[in-house]
Amino acid sequence: MASLGLFAALAFPWLLGCIALAPWWPKPQPGRLPLLLGYGLLLGWALVAMGLWVWGAAGARFSLLAGLAPALVALGSGWWGYRRMGPWQLGEPLPLVEREALGSWVGLLLLAILALRGFDLLYELVTQPLFAWDSWMNWSPKTKVWFFSGYMEPFVAPKEWLARADEPLYTISTYHYPPLVPLMQLWGLLGLGRWDDTLMNLPWWFALVGLGLAFYGQGRGWGLSPLTALVFVYLLLSMPFIGVHVALPGYADIWLAAFYGLSAMALLRWAGDGDRRQLVLALLFGITCIAVKLPGTVWAVTLLPAIVGYRLRWRHLVIPLILCAVPLILLFSPYSVTFDWPWGGGEFRIGAERLWIPGFTQSVITYRPVAGAVLANTLAMPNWHLFWYLLPLALIYAVLVAGVRWVRVGLLLVVSGLLLLGFIYFFTDRAQFVTDYTIVNRGLLHMVPAQLFFIALLWWHLTGGRPAAEAA
Predict the structure, then answer these.
(1) How far apart are CA 332 and CA 314, in angstroms?
(2) Disulfide: which of 325, 393, 457, 470 matches 466 by Cβ 3.0-4.6 Å?
(3) Cβ proximity of 14 and 76 under 8 Å
(4) 0.85 cut: is pTM over it?
């Protein structure tokens, strides 16, 4: 009975997400099914976790009934989509071109490798206890407290916890982190009906599945051939560091990479064919990044230059560049801007060569020589295969063809991410975690799926392809 409850709890988010999105794509098109399955899976988990968040914040006891609000949201979205877009058209579940390409020996081999990798990662996940240090420190303590108490007990700063010792409060160093990740763990436990620090991490495997399906669906919708799209999905899911975050679940980084990646892919699709549904997906998943972990806020901000760049010609890109330069000018000016951080933990401060982000960094801005550690992790160690050799070549080609609007958007997206990490790694106190190799690859993980999708589109452009809408 417990296994049945766990299965139902894990299937429920996927169902919700598909109900919310499917009516908005009623007409058959290449990649429609994997797109809906991938985006629906991750949207469903976000909806369920946010439903639990609202339920707990209202003081109600945690139960599967918390899924009612997300269900109403999904049904509302589906009903609205049906009214706007018309009835659903089935089409072929697997069109002839898909069957021919994926039925070739290369396609079958890639599918077999991906299936084997998925099974291997799932086996690793369910056969070992919780090892992820970040989960011990940031997420699972909240999950455990909330599961056994049945309520969303507050976590406060250590000083406040000491000062209010007679109250039922809890504390950890990351007390102010968003609760989305522990609530994802909690949802499966509610279905299981007992504490299990292994099975509560099953959503991490679904994050990988959703990322792969969404990547393939968006690639096919763009115009990539089935085999080309499958090759790039293989290149993504075979990266060792991505696999590590599924085999050793508990870190929030794979979720941030998935949400940011899905947002960036949708943004590029919108830039390629002007489909406003894709822009809505981009904004929706970009905003969700903020609820995953604190760096999700700055990653969401990196989407803004690309959105601004969509409306500008190549020679006008100085405008988003100036917008990006404003924080740097303020940072090195003698003045500072200070305001209360919306997520708690103190004040945000920028200026006078200081950057204070509560829970993230309180740093004097100066250059740190960490290039050796960054290059070792990207070019020498087997974390990313050959991705970081490929990216510079792709960027050179992107600059050469930057007259194409979607290329400009992708270029701004990639450069914004690289500048963000370059600043954090080389100019803030985060550099100490680069030299000891504890943070450098986790930061890179956040942008790799998005950047690989851009590389896939550039490859298609290089070989004479065009977006499906443009070709039509």
Answers:
(1) 28
(2) 470
(3) no
(4) yes
Q: Domain-by-domain residue ranges, the chain?
A: 2-251, 304-471
Token pair 């899911």 is at which residue?
Answer: 237
The set of residues, in sequence order, having a beta carbon less than 8 Å from that of 95 and lying 6+ positions away, is 28, 30
Average pLDDT taken over every residue of the chain: 87
Q: Residue 363 pLDDT > 60, yes or no?
A: no
Provide the token pair at 41.
């899976």
Q: Token digits for 349?
A: 């401060």
Q: Looking at the predicted structure, is the pLDDT value of residue 193 above 90? A: yes
Q: Per-residue pLDDT tens for 19-30? A: 999 999 998 888
**In 294-430, which ranges are continuous DSSP H helix?**
295-301, 303-310, 318-331, 371-375, 387-400, 405-427
Q: Token pair for residue 302?
A: 């990196």
CA distances from 397 to 70, 185, 203, 391 (A): 43, 42, 37, 10
Report the amino acid identity of residue 218.
Q
Copy the structure tokens of residue 21. 């999105």
For residue 66, the tally of other CB atoms under 10 A from its CB is 24
Residues 224 and 461 sit within 8 Å (Cβ to Cβ): no
Say whether 357 sits in a helix, a strand or coil: strand
CA pair distance 395, 419, nearest whole angstrom: 14
Alpha helices in 152-201 (DSSP H): 158-163, 180-192
Distances (CA, A) of 160 to 4, 56, 178: 42, 21, 19
Report the alpha-carbon distance of residue 288 to residue 401 in Å, rounded. 32
Strand partners, 363: 355
Token code pair at residue 419: 């500048």
